[in-house]
Amino acid sequence: MSELVVAGLSKSFGTTEVLTGIDLTVESGSLAAVLGPSGCGKTTLLRIVAGFERPDGGSVDLAGRTVCGGSIDVPPEKRRIGIVPQEGALFPHLSVGRNVGYGLRRRGSHQHARVAEVLELVGLGGYADRMPHELSGGQQQRVAVARALAPRPALILLDEPFSALDTGLRAEVRADVRSALRADGATAVLVTHDQEEALSTADLVAVMRAGRMVQAAAPRALYLQPADLGVASFVGDTVLLDGTLSGRRALTALGSLAIRGPMPTGSALRVVVRPEQLVLSADGDGVPARVREQVFFGHDSLVRLELSDGAVVTARSLDAAWAQPGLDVCVAVRGEVSCFAAP
Predict the structure, then answer these.
(1) Worst-scoring range by mean pLDDT, 93-97, 184-188, 260-264?
(2) Which of 65, 175, 180, 330 could cross-link 121 (Cys pair, CB 3.0–4.6 Å)?
(3) What CATH number is associated with residue 219?
């Protein structure tokens, strides 16, 4: 069942077109990430779904009911949508428990039971009597998520809720929030510019560019089969090569590579290789290259390589301590690659 259906949505501010023909379907119980750079229109899309802006065209259906489109415009408070803003926006004078229970209609034991339930879901069981100023930034965001979950809304909108957190804490909080949403059976839309956040958190990733929906797919499909060079470059690191088409293979400076997905038109290609596909060896298969630089990140290393034609490519390796600058190595490509017609 589709919980959220956005169809043909358009919006302009003055002469500036912000959204053009946006379509998005989010299934019940899933989390969709709307991913894109600043200014691409993703926040405007969220505000229209929430009811804070009216579209110029198109419609939004929520749980089988049209909430905007044509002459219909259901007020925000009647759309059964929970919102988690960037910095939590808790009421500073209310305890954690009262913040979470603020939107609940039923009082007494029912309210207390639901507050306790959602606080457990976000990992804050026993925190109901704390005040917001006694919590860390990550804990405040968890409370904001619990508050959004408490009334069991049809949809939860998360507007870059982890952007103010430190890197390590951000990963922990978003994993816990994802688990809480899944455990409660909630349907959610996460707006973010962080590709890692979108790929690691969402069931569906929708990429926006300049007010248009470029591609919406499961994270793995989006990463492995990007719709165009723009999506490939935005979602993850890329090694871009010139190539020519030969049957179902691309002839490149890294050798003859198998092509994934639809065949491009024309013989001149732009070939997308992911850095983790590049395999280094001291004297194995592949083409010759010289190590120019190695950057260590703890969990892996990035190795910059110069090919015989002068092209520079970057490999990601879990064990590249031996590949020191100046060393001659062999580099091969593992798996299939995506290709697009050269502009």
Answers:
(1) 260-264
(2) 180
(3) 3.40.50.300
CB contact at 8 A, 314 and 305: yes
Q: What is the mean pLDDT of residues 2-15?
A: 94
What confidence tier does 13 reach under pLDDT thresholds 50, 70, 90?
very high
> Taken in order 135, 138, 144, 148, is the CA torsion positive or negative?
negative
The residue type at 338: S
- The span from the CA of 32 to the CA of 131, in Å, is 32
Mean predicted confidence (pLDDT) in 11-33 = 96
> Which among 63, 50, 82, 78 is positioned nearest to 151, based on CA atoms?
82
| 151 neighbors 103 (Cβ within 8 angstroms) | yes
> What's the mean pLDDT in 56-61?
96
The reply to whether 136 and 99 lie within a common domain is yes
User: DSSP letter at 154?
Assistant: S
* Number of folded domains that form the chain: 2
- Report, as an integer, the average pLDDT of 169-176: 86
Would you give the end-to-end CA distance of the chain in angstroms? 40
d(CA 337, CA 333): 9
Percentage above 90 pLDDT, the chain: 71
Of 198, 230, 262, the position where a domain reaches its end is: 230
244-281: buried (b, 16+ CB within 10 Å) or exposed (e) per residue? ebeeebbbbbbeebebeeeebeeeebbbbbbbebbbbe
Pairwise CA distance, residues 311 & 249, whole Å:
20
